[in-house]
Amino acid sequence: MGRAALSLRDKFEILHAALFDSDGVGTLANDQLAMKLVTAICQPGKVFIDVGAHIGSVISQVAHHDPSIRIVAIEAIPEKIAALRRKFPAIELHDCAVGESTGEVSFFINVKQSGYSSLKRPEDANKGIISEIRVPIRRLDTLVTSSDVDVIKIDVEGAELGALRGSENILNNCRPVIMFESGPQPDDDVDNGKSALFQFLTLNGYAIFVPNRVAHNDAGLSENGFIESHLYPRRTTNYFAIPKERRVEVRDRARSILNIHSV
């Protein structure tokens, strides 16, 4: 019922955008396509890592698509991790944030929209909608030592680069496909901005794609193209980083998921 409701919601949102927000239709369509791809592209028997699992909508879709996939989920909000444990008792869950260091950090919960909670202090932190808590932070390389990681989904509201920097062993040894969020927040942090994120992935042998290009012949975005795609109306909120040596394989898997038989 939950999956059916999500599918109906997606259709309604596309229709609503087409009628009332024509500038946003492309962004919304790409974000919905990203969810369809990321929840079905993991290879059977491999490991899927969900960083920022929230209420478990991605977990549910992956498990439904292929029960042989081993799911590892990370969530920092205590109430959310407790709910995930009740809902998904068979998966591996870690109650922490992830980054490039180990210890304890401040985590900022948006009490009205918990999906926007983050390690980054928001500009409106003093307006009564943000609750600050302390949570453990771990490197993903420490939490997951499997050699079979095939897909990583990262949605951590602006802290994606830190999560990736703490995953270099996984990236180098497993070469997973990565879907990461990159929204239009001000890019005023040179070390953790969009250019640094693009350069980190490029140096590790990845190419970055807008979702509707994953199933097609495309070499990936340039750095300028990646940054430009955040401008209004942005192309997407979610991007795929694909190891260059896996490009054809992932393209063909995406074509199968989307029932694309010829291009």
List the helices and strands and how they pair.
Blueprint: H1 2-20, H2 25-38, E1 47-51, H3 57-65, E2 70-75, H4 78-87, E3 92-95, E4 97-98, E5 103-110, E6 130-138, H5 140-143, E7 149-154, H6 160-165, H7 168-174, E8 177-181, H8 194-203, E9 206-209, H9 223-228, E10 238-243, H10 247-257
Parallel strand pairs: 1-2, 1-7, 2-3, 4-6, 7-8
Antiparallel strand pairs: 5-6, 8-10, 9-10
Characterize the biggest β-sheet. 7 strands, mixed
Based on CA inertia axes, which overall geometry fits?
globular
Number of strands: 10
* Rg: 18 Å
Distance from first to last alpha carbon? 34 Å
Secondary-structure element order, N to C: HHEHEHEEEEHEHHEHEHEH
The low-confidence runs, each spanning 5 or more residues with pLDDT under 50, are: none
Characterize the structure shown.
The chain has a single domain, classed as Rossmann fold (3-Layer(aba) Sandwich). Helices cover 37% and strands 21% of the residues. Strands 3-2-1-7-8-10-9 form a seven-stranded mixed β-sheet, with helices on both faces. It has a three-stranded mixed β-sheet with strand order 4-6-5. It has ten helices and ten strands. Helix 4 (78-87) links the parallel strand 2 and strand 3. Helix 1 runs antiparallel to helix 2 (25-38). With 263 residues, it is an alpha/beta fold. The model has no long low-confidence stretch (mean pLDDT 88). The longest helix has 19 residues, at 2-20.
